[in-house]
Design goal:
- The protein has 301 residues and is α+β, with helices and mostly antiparallel strands.
- It is 53% helix and 8% strand.
- The protein contains 10 helices and 4 strands; from the N terminus they run αβαββαβααααααα.
- Strands 2-3-1-4 form a 4-stranded antiparallel sheet.
- A hairpin with a 4-residue loop joins strand 2 and strand 3.
- It is elongated.
- The two termini are 28 Å apart.
Length: 301
């Protein structure tokens, strides 16, 4: 039996050999009934009494593995149909109610696959998508705030570093006109939305800590950014003579979001505010022996 594309035989190959199952001849899934015309999607006869279970699985990264895994599952007693999808890492099984979900999970793990043991597959995937969206919001809105500062405000604050005196005087006249109100409204809205959307998990953790009477680093960060935003808003729209620092708000949001997403030691998709629910779900699971495959919500082993 040929090896997979990694150049080595896998536990899935071993299971197929032990059961005497024919491997797929090409990159298409293993032999399965098709429609009467011979074309179209694969079909299977599923008794009405059979139930359906879906698993989140890591390790199905080729079409050949899809076919092998489907063949192994269909070879199990009580299974009427199976479908493996490498694209989203899911396996669907139609089976008799007498076949438990744990039995199917053991079959998948025997094939060397990593199975989510707490049925949090779709929630974890959605949380990961939201985390990526927060990074995009922070970076894009941060650039939208930084660009006007670089083009208009910084030249008036560090005159010797930028343009000639005539250009600086022109930019300063724009800031002294009524146009500055609209200018700062846009900057304030962009930086405020970026903070509320991108740093939502940090805000929730900060509020949760304060509700418990704890002053955390998240609370210090949120308080500092909120205070800086309020100071800048007062400087921009009242008679208070201060410097508008919406740029620092945007830089802080971008830095915190990137650190949480890429640099934090424990980068859970929704942050540590989900830690307690994850721990309780893990405690409710069966005890995992050393060497058993497990899955983490960030996709790592």
């Amino acid at each position: 039996m040929p090896d997979d594309h990694h150049g080595r035989s896998t536990r899935l190959d071993a299971v197929v050999r032990d059961r005497g199952i024919d491997a797929p001849a090409d990159d298409s899934p293993a032999d399965a009934p098709r429609s009467e015309s011979g074309a179209g999607p694969r079909v299977a006869r599923v008794p009405e009494s059979h139930v359906h279970d879906t698993f989140s699985v890591e390790g199905i990264d080729t079409k050949r593995r899809e076919g092998l895994l489907e063949a192994v599952l269909r070879d199990c007693d009580g299974v009427s149909a199976a479908s493996a999808t490498a694209r989203n890492g899911t396996v669907g099984v139609h089976h008799d109610p007498s076949v438990s979900r744990d039995d199917l999970r053991e079959t998948l793990e025997a094939c060397g696959l990593v199975v989510d043991r707490t049925d949090r597959a779709f929630e974890a995937r959605r949380a990961s998508q939201f985390a990526s969206a927060r990074v995009a919001v922070a970076v894009l809105f941060g650039l939208m705030v930084a660009t006007p500062y670089i083009a208009v405000l910084y030249p008036t604050r560090i005159e010797w570093l930028f343009y000639d005196p005539v250009t600086v005087a022109y930019l300063q006249s724009l800031l002294d006109s009524q146009m500055a109100t609209h200018f700062f409204v846009n900057l304030g809205a962009l930086s405020g939305i970026a903070f509320l959307v991108a740093c939502a998990p940090i805000v929730r953790r900060a509020l949760g800590g304060l509700a418990e009477g704890r002053l955390t680093t998240d609370a210090l960060f949120v308080g500092s950014v909120a205070g800086l935003f309020a100071y800048s808003t007062a400087a921009a729209f009242t008679g208070f003579d201060g410097t508008v620092h919406y740029d620092l708000v945007a830089y802080a949001v971008v830095g915190a979001t990137l650190w949480t997403h890429f640099g934090a030691a424990d980068p859970a998709a929704e942050g540590r505010d989900a830690a307690e629910s994850v721990e309780s779900a893990a405690d409710a699971d069966t005890e995992v022996a050393d060497g058993d495959p497990v899955a983490m919500t960030d996709g790592g082993r």
